[in-house]
Design the sequence.
């Protein structure tokens, strides 16, 4: 019990306390009885002595009487006649002694009775405490049984915990093996991708070599035919116009083939000169004539939107990008649901035309080619994808970036495109061969790109605008702006650039002098994300952007004043806006899946 009490059992402590109380009560009662018994024995001894003394007095009464009488007579002298006789004195003395003995015996008897009553009370108290002790012992036994059961449960839980710990260790080791296998597979996939890209590069180089050989053979054949034609006698029956046209074409081709060095020198001279933002026309050296589309706006004066004409939940989740086709009646939207939806603008309504599938990630940018027959989209799957209008599946995947592709734009032809990515690169693509013709390394995340005639402009996370000549390898100009750049919009005449940035401002740069011409601000306008898009109107009279509070803000480019702000259907931040080429409609998309047509 002492060991169990030392271990902290409360029942053992109570039991020791009760035993100590009982032992103290026994010692107290024993001390009282030890005092009472000697006193009672002493009383009995005195009673025996008195009895013996009385017997002695009765046996020698005469001697004592005579002696007493004689003494008293001698002492009293003449007054002895008046003293009582000795027998009377003895009787009186005996009575006094008996009275004292009776008093002492009564007192002792009273004490005995009192002590007996106290002893009875103590015995009843002892019995009661014994019963309480028995109940406490039973309670202690019950608690000990419960404690034993709890100990068994603890042991069982410990065994289960140990088993689960072993299972967890096994799962952890298995997960480490799986992670190692995943890393190996990722490395193998990366190696395979590198091999695939290298093979594509080699295939493109071989194709270029074959094309060059074919072009050289063609040039030799044309030269021989030209020589034969020069030596041939012309018949009067042949048409002089037809023959003259054929000879002229052959002569021009031969002249182009014979003077490559002069053309290269001329191109280098052009690159050294400042940018010319005029459209250029012509053919590539020794190649097939490449068709270029002049984006001439059909809008004379854009109409300011005033009210929401149609509101749709266009996607399953957030809508990130929107773009009008060249004919102003076809619209493309892309969102985080990895879908691109094409819409027809009919009678002031948006009617679903087609859904383009196959994107590997969220859509961040959408663009039509100059003919309106192809759609190019940037995705978070480290690639850009190309669709043909009318075909649901992707036509081509432009892979090669190592991070999210944030922008993808066509150049002035349908066979060339430019992409920007968060891997700090800008890539030029030959869409005919799905081949990256050039990679430009930049110093910051690229959030948007725009393309001119022979110029590429990129906006970056380090608050800078960079200009690249497609004919040269280096950056030609850097313009710093305040705030991270979220979007770029180039006017149709390629003379002005609209910038949207995270400092809640829009800026217009005059590309002729490379200087910021206007800065647009408004109370309540806030750039909602790193991919918020702002655009020029087709006639470059207005700048349009959406805010994080769901409103559209329109500024006058010439005066710099806020022209109007539109509020209504949008309850979430507006991600992108688009203004059709005819200037009659505006479309905005937001983070709440809404696509809104404004008129």
Sequence:
């Amino acid at each position: 019990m002492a060991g169990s009490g030392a271990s902290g059992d409360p029942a053992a402590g109570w039991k020791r306390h009760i035993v100590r109380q009982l032992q103290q009560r026994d010692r107290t009662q024993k001390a009282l009885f030890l005092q009472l018994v000697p006193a009672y024995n002493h009383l009995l001894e005195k009673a025996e002595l008195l009895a013996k003394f009385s017997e002695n007095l009765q046996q020698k009464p005469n001697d004592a009487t005579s002696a007493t009488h004689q003494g008293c007579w001698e002492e009293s002298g003449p007054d002895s006649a008046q003293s009582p006789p000795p027998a009377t004195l003895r009787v009186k003395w005996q009575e006094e002694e008996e009275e004292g003995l009776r008093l002492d015996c009564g007192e002792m008897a009273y004490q005995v009775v009192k002590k007996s009553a106290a002893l009875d009370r103590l015995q009843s108290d002892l019995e009661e405490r014994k019963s309480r002790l028995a109940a406490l012992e039973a309670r202690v036994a019950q608690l000990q049984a419960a404690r034993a059961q709890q100990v068994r449960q603890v042991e069982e839980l410990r065994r289960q915990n140990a088993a689960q710990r072993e299972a967890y260790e096994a799962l952890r080791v298995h997960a480490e093996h799986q992670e190692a296998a995943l890393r190996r597979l990722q490395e193998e996939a990366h190696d395979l991708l590198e091999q695939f890209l290298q093979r594509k590069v080699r295939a493109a180089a071989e194709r270029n070599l074959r094309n060059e050989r074919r072009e050289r053979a063609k040039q030799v054949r044309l030269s021989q035919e030209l020589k034969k034609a020069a030596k041939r006698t012309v018949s009067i029956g042949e048409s002089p116009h037809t023959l003259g046209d054929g000879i002229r074409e052959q002569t021009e081709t031969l002249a182009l083939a014979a003077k490559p060095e002069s053309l290269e020198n001329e191109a280098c001279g052009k690159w050294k000169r400042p940018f010319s933002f005029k459209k250029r026309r012509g053919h590539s050296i020794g190649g097939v004539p490449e068709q270029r589309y002049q984006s001439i706006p059909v809008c004379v004066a854009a109409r300011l939107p005033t009210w929401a004409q149609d509101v749709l939940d266009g996607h399953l989740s957030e809508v990130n990008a929107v773009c009008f086709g060249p004919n102003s009646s076809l619209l493309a939207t892309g969102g985080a649901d990895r879908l691109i939806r094409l819409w027809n603008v009919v009678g002031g309504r948006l009617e679903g035309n087609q859904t383009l599938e196959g994107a590997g990630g969220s859509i961040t940018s959408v663009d039509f080619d100059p003919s309106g027959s192809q759609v190019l989209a940037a995705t978070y799957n480290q690639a850009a994808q190309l669709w043909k209008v009318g075909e649901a599946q992707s036509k081509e995947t432009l892979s090669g970036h190592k991070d999210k592709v944030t922008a993808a734009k066509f150049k002035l032809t349908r066979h060339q495109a430019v992409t920007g990515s968060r891997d700090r690169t800008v890539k030029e693509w030959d869409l005919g061969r799905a081949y990256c013709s050039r990679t430009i390394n930049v110093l910051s995340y690229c959030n948007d790109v725009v393309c001119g005639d022979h110029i590429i402009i990129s906006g970056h996370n380090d608050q800078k605008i960079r200009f690249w000549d497609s004919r040269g390898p280096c950056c030609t100009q850097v313009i710093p702006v305040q705030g991270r750049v979220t979007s770029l919009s180039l006017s149709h005449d390629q003379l002005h650039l609209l910038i949207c940035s995270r400092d809640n401002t829009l800026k217009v740069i005059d590309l002729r002098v490379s200087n910021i011409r206007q800065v647009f601000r408004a109370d309540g306008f806030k750039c909602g994300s790193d991919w918020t898009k702002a655009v020029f109107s087709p006639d470059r009279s207005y700048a349009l952007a959406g805010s994080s509070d769901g409103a559209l803000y329109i500024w006058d480019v010439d005066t710099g004043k806020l022209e109007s702000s539109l509020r209504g259907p949008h309850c979430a931040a507006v991600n992108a806006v688009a203004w059709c080429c005819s200037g009659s409609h505006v479309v905005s998309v937001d983070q709440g899946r809404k696509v809104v047509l404004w008129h």
